[in-house]
Design a protein that fits this description.
CATH architecture of the largest domain in chain A: 3-Layer(aba) Sandwich
Largest interface: A-B, 58 and 58 residues
Order of helices and strands of chain A: HHEEEHEHHHHEHEEEHEEEEHEEHEHEH
CATH class of the largest domain in chain A: Alpha Beta
CATH topology of the largest domain in chain A: Aminopeptidase
Shape of chain A: globular
Number of helices of chain A: 13
Structural class of chain A: alpha+beta
Strand content of chain A: 15-25%
Radius of gyration of chain A: 24 Å
Oligomer: homodimer
CATH superfamily of the largest domain in chain A: Zn peptidases
Low-confidence stretches of chain A: none
Number of strands of chain A: 16
Distance between the termini of chain A: 37 Å
Mean pLDDT of chain A: 96
Chain lengths: ~400, ~400
């Protein structure tokens, strides 16, 4: 078995550990998470690492440098999953980091390496993502700890139920004081590398994101007795706007804009829709471009409504600024791949990652691995062995040539 | 109080009788229906009519002609309502018919008049409309009687629970053998008369109707990581089609086409919709035009899908042919209105009515009364007193000049 095949094998083995038999569903601090810990800690200790579990349930595994007062490099990703997930989203970054350390054998390095397997990234259990990396950067608040899951259990109580102590989070979850850099390897979760026939990309930035809910209010009328000229059809207005969202985003470099959900009211076959609620998700690597796109699209919604006597109200639901990754580390990753004999693309991440939470605190970089079919958050999610070899060789080369005080 | 105001007053009084306190909801064979019967039968008997309740719970009230073997004219509408209804949809036709008979006093006529207050037209309780008029025309089948309501009660049992006998339907519900004509007065339930500033219209035909469910199947993808050029967005395809449905129908005389409900799957804010289910309701007074419109719109759905790698499947859910009303009776109604000093428009009914069920069996006509604001199936549904006077005067004139063997 090749070293890449072994990584894939471990990811698939971990994917068998699930809260729901027959699929991969491993929620934050769930019973299956405890079993996943057992297996991961075993692999980590086999590799000679010092391991511990912090008080949000993230695993921490350290390879000490022989240098006194050596600073620390983080290799991180997450081990929770969405419901009915694939095997690679999250665990790949942890298991590939471990494999890289195994490949180093006793090669001395001028820095410690800490693998962090974050316990919460997907936001499923408490309807809020990045809880572990927020804790690691001192951003987890009492409000977060008071959030409840679908059974009414608070985050603080879930931590206690797992045998951990929410009062010790500040102490046990904090990143090492002497961190100088952080790297996350993650599947792309999109079709771009596959479309470019490429294995790897270095992430330049994580896009900013605006989410809106739009309400189109017209007038519900009888579908048989109301002539077309006397209608105020909220759905026709929304439809004209949805077509414009697609057309505009397609014409604007690096912009993605999505209407993911539409609800019609009253929603009867024989009634002209009087009200439509629609969502809008807009992402772009430059915040100014995103703001301009949002302004354009909201204006177009009003215009589509005005043609039909339909009013439009838009409510901002959430907004996230674009987060640039560290430029010097990115260059270093590109060079490492080149030395290892692999080409790397540059791209933006359209999805959020823990890297985005760490980046304001530590120089952070991300390496994307091709997602065949662009498939993600799906049991058929997969990776190619050749791409895993490329990623592993790149990370090893990155470690061998990285100097804390460059 | 004017005679028109008295009709309105009676409709509003009847609307107080409801299965749900504080609104007007009177379902087929419900407890409130029994109370409504009590009041209506009292008014009918006060007017000197012979009354009975048939075995689908419709009220039948007869004014006998002095002529031996006189044929019978039906004046009909329905007394069930949709949930949270207005006071006039249905009851107006019964109460106005009664008022017309009251106004005749002892004027001899060469025909009997039978008022039929159908107990079921709206289709709410058994998710199937026109059950009473189907019974009256011998079209009620054992399958209809086996239909169940939301509590699992069959129609046959509901009839028994009301103290009636489903085995006697053929006998007690049949229209009188010597029927020669039928007239239904009903609110327009649409905005056409109001837009034309007119009180009354004679209905030329009830439109034909096709109902489809369309499924657009694309591919669900991550809204952040999937570039616009690599999407197969089922909602964008559906939206382009919905805009075309509106545009095409608006450009085609007498056509109405409605997309009343859209559902997006998975329906998450951050996922490109992989599937959309949409309804289509197409109506036109000429069946060939309706078929041509349907063919055009389904082709356009496929074209909107093809642009995006989205497949479209259309399933016919129901189809109803256009039903012409009796031309000679319609002329007679126009003339009656003219003699009474009122103008009448001609129009098509975009909604279904019991008249459509009777028309293949008896020469049938319908008189529409303006619906202010086009409002219907809504507690604010109303009528104008001047329009009710116009309708009453027209019906009285119609009765006074109608000859069974014209």
């Amino acid at each position: 078995m090749t070293r890449a095949a072994k990584i894939i094998d471990r990811c698939r083995e971990l994917a068998r550990i699930s809260d729901v038999p027959g699929e991969t569903t491993r929620l934050f601090l769930s019973p299956a998470t405890r079993d996943a810990h057992t297996l991961l800690l075993w692999w980590m200790r086999q590799a000679g690492l010092e391991t511990r579990t912090d008080d949000t349930g993230s695993l921490r595994a350290v390879r000490r440098s022989a240098h006194a007062n050596a600073p620390t490099l983080l290799l991180f990703s997450h081990i929770d999953t969405v419901p009915n997930a694939g095997p690679f989203d999250g665990p790949l970054g942890v298991i590939l980091a471990l494999a890289a350390i195994e490949e180093l054998h006793n090669t001395p390095l001028p820095f410690n390496i800490e693998i962090v397997a974050f316990s919460e990234e997907e936001g499923v259990r408490f309807s809020f993502p990045f809880l572990s990396s927020l804790a690691a950067t001192g951003q987890l608040t009492p409000e977060h700890l008071a959030r409840t899951d679908s059974e009414g259990i608070t985050l603080a109580q879930a931590i206690r139920n797992f045998g951990l102590d929410p009062d010790c989070i500040a102490e046990t979850c904090a990143l090492p004081a002497n961190c100088f850099a952080a790297l996350e390897v993650h599947i792309e979760q999109g079709p771009v590398l596959e479309a470019d026939d490429a294995s790897l990309a270095v992430v330049e930035a994580i896009v900013g994101q605006s989410r809106f809910q739009l309400t189109f209010e017209g007038q519900a009328n009888h579908a048989g007795t109301t002539p077309m000229s006397l209608r105020h059809d909220a759905l026709a207005a929304a439809a004209q706007w949805i077509v414009e969202v697609e057309r505009y985003a397609a014409s604007y470099t690096q912009l993605v804009a999505t209407v993911g959900r539409v609800e019609t009211f009253p929603g009867a076959m024989n009634i002209v829709p009087g009200k439509v609620i629609a969502t809008l998700d807009v992402r772009h690597p430059r915040d100014e471009s995103r703001h301009a796109a949002v302004a354009h699209l909201l204006t177009k919604a009003e215009a589509a409504g005005a043609l039909r006597g339909v009013t439009v109200h838009a409510r901002l639901q959430s907004e996230q600024k674009a987060v640039p990754m560290d430029h010097a580390l990115a260059q270093h990753l590109h060079q490492a791949a080149g030395r290892a004999g692999f080409a790397t693309h540059s791209m933006f991440s359209g999805a959020g990652h823990d890297a985005m939470i760490l980046a304001p605190y530590i120089p952070t970089t991300m390496l994307f691995v091709r997602s065949p079919g662009g498939l993600s958050h799906h049991p058929d999610e997969t990776v190619r062995e050749q791409d895993i070899e490329a990623a592993l060789a790149t990370v090893i080369n990155f470690l061998l040539h990285l100097h804390p005080h460059r």
